[in-house]
Specification:
This protein has 740 residues and is mainly alpha-helical. 69% of the residues lie in helices and 2% in strands. The protein has 24 helices and six strands. The strands form two sheets. The chain has a four-stranded mixed sheet. A two-stranded antiparallel ribbon has the order 3-4. A hairpin with a 4-residue loop joins β5 and β6 (136-139). α7 (219-246) crosses α19 (604-610). The longest helix is centred in the C-terminal third of the chain and has 37 residues, at 700-736. The protein is globular, with a radius of gyration of 27 Å. Residues 38-209 form the Nitric oxide reductase subunit B cytochrome c-like domain. This is Nitric-oxide reductase large subunit. Keywords: Membrane, Transmembrane, Transmembrane helix. It holds the Pfam family NorB_cytochrome_c-like. InterPro entries: Cyt_c_oxase-like_su1_sf, Cyt_C_Oxase_1, NorB_cytochrome_c-like.
Length: 740
């Protein structure tokens, strides 16, 4: 066991050394924000640093990543503003020169004349004119005219609205804020089109793909993509061999003939947890309703079946609430499970446990409702920019809630860590065979509380590369890393209490499993940051280690088989049929959603072309709901199963399970994936801006595919209805039950 612990500790230490090292490189080599952007020859000031930084705050206040995307990160209906700005700027300059030199539009010129003007454009756009001593960027007069044209275009979009982008009229009307927003959009495009000093690629490693300025994939992206695939195949072989060699070597245990948990002692605090499941069911239902509204905006833009809903609930707000509620209800489910299992772990109920549970319950309601109200107020421009940062809309996908609500949530998590950890520590002191399992559980609980604070590591005026770095610490490490460790250990603990697996074996397997997926998962965080103003180290390490993330997922077939065999091993196991079915679904979607669709967009050579397309939405839905959502639902069912003393009527759960899984498959295969493939082909052959253009997204074929999504959505929604119906009904029954 010491050897396994040593491997685990080494993985953690070495991985974070690498991740923090790349972080320091991001801070030191990020695209500079100049004090001034000036016009060549005249030194006329075009933008200032204050304009760019305030423009970023303005962008955040209108919804940020929920209104189109920057550097590929964000929503899919509106364009990627960086790619769109670069393309429009290039077209304007080429046409202006073509008219002056040849008195023709650029598209009508022969190949030789086009090549001449394109070379001039590349020289103008890609030459880095940032002066370190004066801290200024110099812009040519031709480019300045293109910038002014773009500013008119984007000012009109955000002030007058555009249905195809789901941007309502009056989204932003303040002229000063509009000018500052344009300054920020210019800076993001400058960083993506200007070469790094002493390099032949831009600050974003030539992202986006834009043939007009020779923004094409770099050799680094190709090389590290190839190496990642080789390493993936190598380590799949090694891990499969290791698994087949060792998976039968656990301590022998005779599975009991009757359920060991039949007479499980229940505690008052476990009854206090039940109300969480009702609220979680309501949040799930609300999230699905908001998802239906959000996806419908991609068809009508401003309306919901003819009703002008955008006046009250614009796309940026509905999508914010949809994604945020997913994180809220899934995290709340896992946290409630920890509180429910805590007295089972220690065998006693600690002082003030019920008070803490009730306090956290109220805090959950305050954070959910308060942050949703703040986001609505922020997007509607009722808050000044600083107030918006603290109480409104921060503008970053999956962590849109204002800083005040983040702090309140952080305090709640610290309280949760204390409440759960004291039970685990009490059990560890018994020094029995479950000690190692409980230690890794304790570490995962502490990590969940600690790593949420990574989302507080940037400020109101931090730069975009720095914010993205810490954002993915939260979204990837907190959710996909340490919550996954927590889930693995919780399931192992439950199975050990059911005497399906020996506690000592469960501990050894849990530590080994955590070591394997954290070995890829911690440094694999960088695969989100390939083209976010980061140095090439992010591509090298991100590509290599994100491939290793997929390795353990290839063995999910074994996990599915073992869980299935569990159900057939003893008659009493049928009592736990539906929680185990949901755990089987987690394993399936872990392989398909996180594995197959995750690796589809993980290698730099793939992500370069398809970042921010519907292929990303495929991975998001199948991994976030398919893995973490299904796991959360499985946790709810296992807690209710432990608490309930009656046989379950299976019809609702059977309909819920199959509708959820069939609906998710249909949603992906009938709509999201085909649209993503069409966009990917367009991005590769024509350029990234074309793949996000309204002309493509509102073409007859894509519109038909959007409508076909209704098939999967309806089936999925039926599954949600039956699951919530069962959960609420069973919870109410258990509320009425007296604790023995």
């Amino acid at each position: 066991m010491k050897k396994i612990w040593l491997i685990f500790i080494s993985v953690i230490i070495l991985s974070f050394i690498a991740l923090i090292w790349v972080g320091t490189e991001i801070y030191q080599t990020q695209p500079p924000i100049p004090e001034k952007v000036i016009l060549k020859n005249t030194a006329e000031i075009i933008f200032t640093k204050a304009d760019i930084q305030t423009g970023q705050n303005v962008w955040e206040s209108i919804g940020g990543m929920e209104v189109g995307s920057i550097w590929g990160h964000g929503s899919y209906v509106a364009p990627d503003w960086t790619a769109d700005w670069i393309h429009k700027e290039a077209i304007y300059m080429l046409n202006a020169w073509a008219k002056i030199d040849f008195n023709q539009p650029y598209d009508e010129l022969n190949a030789e004349k086009k090549a001449t003007l394109k070379a001039r454009l590349i020289q103008d756009i890609k030459t880095n004119t940032f002066n370190i001593s004066s801290n200024t960027i110099t812009i040519s007069e031709e480019r300045y005219n293109a910038i002014k044209s773009n500013m008119i275009h984007y000012t009109k979009i955000f002030s007058e609205g555009k249905a195809e982008y789901a941007i309502p009229k009056g989204a932003l009307v303040d002229k000063e804020k509009l000018a500052q927003l344009n300054a920020f959009l210019f800076w993001t495009s400058w960083a993506a089109s200007t070469n790094r000093p002493n390099h032949e690629y831009t600050y974003t490693s030539n992202w986006p793909h834009e043939p007009l300025i020779d923004n094409t994939i770099t050799s680094d992206s190709i090389i590290w993509s190839g190496l990642s695939i080789v390493l993936l195949l190598l380590f799949i072989g090694i891990l499969t061999y290791y698994y087949l060699l060792n998976h039968e070597k656990g301590d022998l245990i005779n599975k009991p003939e009757t359920d060991p948990l039949t007479n499980l002692k229940l505690f008052p605090s476990q009854k206090a947890i039940l109300k969480y499941f009702i609220v979680i069911s309501l949040l799930i239902g609300l999230q699905v309703i908001l998802g239906i509204i959000t996806v419908h905006y991609t068809v009508e833009g401003q309306a919901f079946f003819g009703f002008d809903l955008a006046n009250f609930l614009p796309y940026s707000v509905s999508r914010t609430w949809h994604t945020q509620l997913a994180v809220f209800w899934i995290a709340a489910t896992w946290l409630a499970t920890g509180l429910f299992l805590a007295p089972m772990i220690s065998g006693k109920e600690m002082k003030y446990q019920i008070f803490g549970i009730n306090f956290l319950f109220v805090a959950l309601l305050v954070i959910v409702l308060g942050s949703m109200l703040g986001e609505w107020l922020g997007v509607h421009q009722f808050l000044d920019l600083t107030t918006n940062f603290f109480f409104g809309h921060q503008g970053y996908e999956y962590m849109d809630l204002g800083r005040f609500w983040q702090l309140l949530l952080a305090v709640g998590l610290v309280l949760w860590v204390i409440m759960v950890s004291r039970h685990i520590l009490y059990a560890i002191r018994k020094n029995d065979e479950s000690k190692d399992l409980l230690i890794i559980l304790l570490l995962s609980v502490i990590a969940i509380g600690m790593f949420f604070f990574s989302g507080l590591m940037y400020g109101e005026n931090s730069s975009l590369p720095v914010i993205n770095y810490w954002r993915w610490w939260l979204v990837h490490l907190w959710v996909e890393g340490f919550f996954e460790v927590f889930a693995t250990v919780v399931i192992a603990f439950i199975f050990s209490r059911m005497k399906i697996i020996a506690a000592k074996t469960a501990g050894r397997v849990s530590i080994a499993s955590a070591s394997i997926f954290l070995a890829g998962g911690i440094i694999g965080t960088l695969h989100h940051l390939y083209f976010s103003g980061t140095p090439v180290q992010a591509i090298a390490l991100g590509a290599t280690f994100s491939a290793l993330e997929v390795v353990p997922l290839t063995l999910m077939g074994f996990e599915i088989r073992e869980n299935w065999n569990l159900l057939k091993s003893k008659t009493w196991m049928q009592k736990y049929k539906w929680p185990i079915f949901f755990f089987i679904a987690v394993a399936f979607w872990n392989f398909v959603g996180a594995g197959v669709f995750g690796f589809l967009i993980n290698p730099p050579i793939a992500l370069y072309y398809i970042q921010g397309l519907n292929t990303t939405a495929v991975h998001a839905h199948t991994a976030l709901f398919g893995v973490y959502g299904m796991l959360g639902m499985g946790f709810i069912l296992i807690c209710l199963r432990f608490y309930s003393d009656r046989n379950w009527e299976n019809t609702k759960l059977k309909r819920a399970f199959w509708c959820l899984n069939i609906g998710l498959v249909a949603m992906v295969l009938f709509s999201l994936l085909p649209i993503g493939i069409i966009q990917a082909y367009t991005s590769i052959t024509k350029g990234y801006s074309f793949a996000r253009d309204a002309e493509l997204l509102y073409s007859p074929t894509v519109q038909l595919l959007k409508w076909l999504r209704m098939i999967g959505d309806i089936i999925f929604s039926v599954g949600i209805f039956y699951f919530c119906w069962f959960t609420v009904n069973e919870t109410i029954y258990n509320f009425k039950k007296k604790i023995k």
